[in-house]
Amino acid sequence: MNRNRKLSELSELYRESVLIELREIISESPEHLRGVLLYHMGWQNEKGAPSREKTGKFLRSSLCLLSCRAVGGDPTRILPAAATLELIHNFSLIHDDIQDASPERHGRPTVWKIWGQSQAINAGDVMFALAILSSLRLRENGISDEAVLYSFRLLSETCLELCEGQFLDIEYENKMGASIDNYLEMIRKKTAALIAASVSLGAYLGGGDGAKVVHLAQFGEKLGMAYQIHDDILGIWGSQEEMGKSARGDIQQRKKTLPVLYGLENSKGGDRLKLESLYSQGNIDAGDVLTVMNILADAGAKDYAHNLAGEYYEQALQHLYASEIDDESLVSLKEIVCFLMDRNY
Amino acid sequence: MNRNRKLSELSELYRESVLIELREIISESPEHLRGVLLYHMGWQNEKGAPSREKTGKFLRSSLCLLSCRAVGGDPTRILPAAATLELIHNFSLIHDDIQDASPERHGRPTVWKIWGQSQAINAGDVMFALAILSSLRLRENGISDEAVLYSFRLLSETCLELCEGQFLDIEYENKMGASIDNYLEMIRKKTAALIAASVSLGAYLGGGDGAKVVHLAQFGEKLGMAYQIHDDILGIWGSQEEMGKSARGDIQQRKKTLPVLYGLENSKGGDRLKLESLYSQGNIDAGDVLTVMNILADAGAKDYAHNLAGEYYEQALQHLYASEIDDESLVSLKEIVCFLMDRNY
Fold first, then answer.
1. Contact B29/A136, CB-based, under 8 Å?
2. Residue A79 burial by Cβ neighbours in a 10 Å radius (0-12, 13-18, 19+)
3. ipTM of the complex model
4. CATH classification code of B9-341
5. Closest residue of chain A to B122, computed from CA coordinates
6. Would you give the DSSP letter of residue B54?
7. If you measure CA to CA, which chain A residue comes closest to B125?
8. pLDDT (tens digit per residue) in A74-127
C-alpha cells in the first residue's frame, strides 16, 4: 500500500465534483497567472498543454464533504466550501515550497522552480484570493449569509494558525533547542488545524448539532496530528514512491521532525554528540544520512514516533465514534483514516 | 511640499480612528508573528520596543471614510472596512518588498531584510488573513450581512487585480518590449484598482446610490493612475526626502516605469541604443544613472509623464464633480488629491 492507493469510492465520487468546482473558480483567476495555477494543480504542463498529473489527494475536501453527509447534510450544496479548503491548502503549499526551497512536489518541479520566487509568491496570493471568491459561491447554493460569514471566520482564523505553524517550523529549522512539545504545537497549527477545520466546516454547513460538530472537529485535529507524524516517519524511512520526492530528503534538509527531536533528546554519548553536530552544521551529505538513520533507530526514535501516531489515531477514532454519525458515514470516514495511516514504514 | 506634509484635518482625525481599529485587529494575530507586523506598521522597533515611526499615509482608509461621509454615511461604522484596506495594502507591500528585493521602506529596513524572505512571506499572508477578520467586524457595527459579503467580493476581486498587476510588473522588469499601453494596464491593476475599491467601498457601505458609487469609483481609479505616474516621476527625479528611500533607485533597479518606456520609444540614434543597452544589462551603476536621466530628459520623457499624470488628475476631478457630493466632502477629497499631486519634481 502506498500514497497512490485510491481513497474510498465515495471520496472518489466527491473528488470529481470538487475538481469541476475548482476548475470553475480557477477559470476566474487573472489570465496571466492562470497557467501557473493550472500547472500547480497538475492540469497543465509548464508550457500550457493539458495534462492530468497525479497531484493532491483532495483529503481536505473529501473530509469536508463526508462530514457534511455524516450529519445529514447535502454535500453537493457545499462544494464551494470544499473547493475553498483545497485552495487554501494549495496557497500554503506554493508558499511552503518557496520557504523550504523544495525543488519538487509530486515528482514535478515546484512553481518557484519554474517561474521564480516572486511569481510563486503571486500565485499563492491569487489562490488565497480565489478561496474567498469560492466561499462566496455557497450563496448560489442556498447556504445562508450567516453560514457563509461563519465559514469566513473559521477559515481566516485557521489561516492565522497555519501561518503561525509555518513561522514556528522555519524558526525551529534555524536553531537548536526546540522540544517535542514545541514540535507538537507547531504541527497542530501547521497541519492539524486545517484538517480539523475541513471536518468541522462540513459538519457545520451540513447542519450538524453542536456536540457532533465538536467531536468531528476533534476527530479532524487528532487525525491531522497522526497524519503529520506519519509523514515525518516517511520523510526519513519512506520509499521514494511513497513520498513523490527524494526519500530521506528530510534528513538532508536537516528538518527537525519528531524522530529527530526524539533522537536528540534520547540518544546517548557519542551518538548524541554526532547527531547534534550534524544538525548544527550547514549540510548533511549522503554518507551522513545513513549515520543519522542508524542513530535514530538505535535511540528508538522510529518506534516512539510510530506509537505516538498510533495514540493520535486512536483518539481520532474515539471522537469519530462519539460523534454518533450513521454507520455508512462512519465507514467512509474510517476508510480515509485507514488510507492515510495504513502505509508501510 | 513633500510626502510628509499632512493630509487634511479631517483625514488626520480619521487616521487616529483607523489606527485604533488596526491595533485591535493586529492584536488578534498569532503571538509569534505579531512583532513582525507591529514593526512593519512602524509601531515597534525590531526588538519589540514601542516606537512611532512615520510610515504609511493611510491614503486608502482616508479615501474610504471620506467617500462614506460624502454619500451621507457614518464613517465610524465602517472603520473595519477602512482597516481592511490598509491590511490588504500592507500585505501587498510586504510581499512586494521581497519581490523587488527592496532593502528599505520609509527609511527603515524592510521585513524580509530583518526576518528573512520566508518569514516575510508568512507575515504578508497573516496580514491577508487579518483583512478578512477585520471585515467581519463590520457586522458588530450594524452593517448588514449582505453588505459585508459584497465587500468580500469587491476586495477579493481587487486582490486578483493587484496580484495580476504585480505579476505583469515583474514580467516587464525581466524582459524588453513592454509598451506604454502595457504599462498603463499594469499600474491600473497594481495601484489604481485598490484605490478605486477604497473609494467605492466607502460609498457603497455609506449607502450611496448607484450613480454616485460609479463616479466615485472612477474618481478613485483615475486618481490612482495619476498617483502612480507621479510616483514614477519621483522615482527618477525626486529627492531622497520625498521618496523615503534612495533617490533614483528606480533607475538603478532598471525599473521600466513610464518615463523609461517613453524614452525607449522616443529617444533617437545613439541615445536610444545606449538606453536599450543599459536596460538590457545586469546593472546600472551611478555614472550610468546620470546618463539615463539626461537621455530621458532630452527625449521629453519627464514632460510626457507629467502631462499624462495631469490628464488623469483632470479626469479624476471631473468624476468627483459628477458624483454631486456635498461641498464639504468635495473639499476634503480634493485636499487629498492635492496632497498626492502637489509635489515638487
1. no
2. buried
3. 0.93
4. 1.10.600.10
5. A163
6. -
7. A163
8. 999 999 999 999 999 999 999 999 999 999 998 899 999 999 999 999 999 999
